[in-house]
Amino acid sequence: MEAARVHGVEVIGDTEIFIRERKASGTAAKVIAITGTNGKSTTTALTHHILSSIGLDAVLGGNIGKAVLDLPPFADGRYYVIEFSSFQLDLTPSLDADAAILLNVTPDHIDRHGSLESYAAVKETIFKRARAAVIGADDGFCNAIAERAIAQGVQTFRISANHPVSNGIYAEGTELFEVEDGAIRNRASLKGIGSLRGAHNAQNASAALAACRSLGLPWDKLAGALASFPGLAHRMEEVRRIGHVLFVNDSKATNADAAERALLSFSNIYWIAGGKAKEGGITSLAPYFPKIKKAYLIGHSAEDFAATLGQAVPYALTKTLDRAVAEAAADAAADGTGEAVVLLSPACASYDQFPNFEVRGTAFRALAEALPDGPAKDRAG
After folding, report:
1. How, if at all, do strands 377-378 and 237-242 pair?
2. Which residue in the list 109, 221, 278, 294 is annotated as catalytic?
3. 291 is an active site residue
4. Whose CA is closest to 65, among 77, 52, 55?
5. If you placed Cys at 345, which of 144, 253, 349, 362 could pair as Cys (CB 3.0 to 4.6 Å)?
């Protein structure tokens, strides 16, 4: 790639061809571009769901679902909701989104980009020609990017799961507040929406709503579509209930940062963790150990994770997922303190025992569904 650039040869990706074709089509098709280190797939799917639910012609693709060149042809009134990875952004120099979302920036793909600063700079390119910018307000990189967008005259909406914002949408627990010039204009609630549980999903929902609002769409209809969002497979997916036990498939949590979001979202946890560990293991999760009733450790990292848990959390070296599900289900069923959660949130890559996280999550789902019925069998969600 570098050699091509040195010799003046253009290096682009399919997303760049997509953007050029939109311009050539002469249509009024809209593009909502979404990126971020964490949460971009859920936010992309949720944005698409909201638009479709209120009767608009919306299609989804990019780094999720179909490749952009396989999407339906450009047409007036059609909304393209596109997830962009940093790799794709790097190869889309002409991106000109009608609304662009950057959720967050935390260390990722440093081997590709060279440094966290370079990675953040690539993420920032999503706003280069954007008509509206939706930017997370909960990390330093995004705050600096928001200030630059405002200075460049881009209509900018901040989103936060941690504190109020003056223009944009923020969350307090399960409540969302749309703010304009410091005044609350609209409210919505995520209470009881299992697919949007947790502070990270409050940020995702805020971003999706803000992007749609930037396109002039009505708040009440947008907010009303949240409750029917089914969520994404393998991302805090509520698989099943047996009596007071909820089974949650969070196989996509392939590192400790991702597992943290699940541990934050539940209590009374029977935690299935392990696989091929990332650097640092689960040491950063120590503040959440009190929420874990017992851990069931699988895969290559089982002994290392056991050493980290030490005396803080009871654990079983179950080694395999089938044993972990069986033991966790039995222990959770015997828990008499209210709702118990059997949570697969491995904090590890899967490839010691599974080809990918999807296969691991599908296996967990099948094991949970095969368990004997309890007194109140139900599908979660």
Report:
1. antiparallel
2. 109
3. no
4. 52
5. 253
Q: What is the pTM of this model?
A: 0.87
Smallest Cα–Cα separation from 190: which of 174, 177, 211, 168?
Answer: 174
- Judged against a pLDDT cut of 70, whether residue 379 lies above it is answered with no
Told to judge if 23 belongs to the known catalytic residues of this protein, a careful annotator would answer: no
- Exactly one of 30, 40, 49, 244 is catalytic; which is it? 40
Contact in structure between 138 and 160 (CB atoms under 8 Å): yes
- The Cα–Cα gap between 147 and 52 comes to 32
What is the average per-residue pLDDT within 246-251?
97
- At residue 377, the pLDDT reads 42
What are the tokens at 251?
């196989």
Alpha helices, DSSP H, located in the chain: 2-6, 14-25, 40-53, 86-90, 110-113, 116-124, 140-151, 199-214, 219-224, 256-265, 302-309, 321-333, 357-369
Q: How far apart are CA 77 and CA 57, in angstroms?
A: 7
Q: Tell me, yes or no, if 109 is annotated catalytic.
A: yes
Q: Which of 38, 48, 63, 104 is catalytic?
A: 63
Is residue 164 within 8 A of residue 158, CB to CB? The reply is no
252 secondary structure, DSSP code: T
In order of start, what are the domains of the chain with their CATH numbers?
2-228 (3.40.1190.10), 237-378 (3.90.190.20)
| C-alpha distance from residue 16 to each of 84, 136, 186, 360, 372 (Å) | 11, 25, 36, 33, 51
Look at strands 245-249 and 237-242 and give their pairing.
antiparallel
Alpha carbon separation from 6 to 2, 10, 121, 297 (Å, rounded):
6, 10, 21, 49
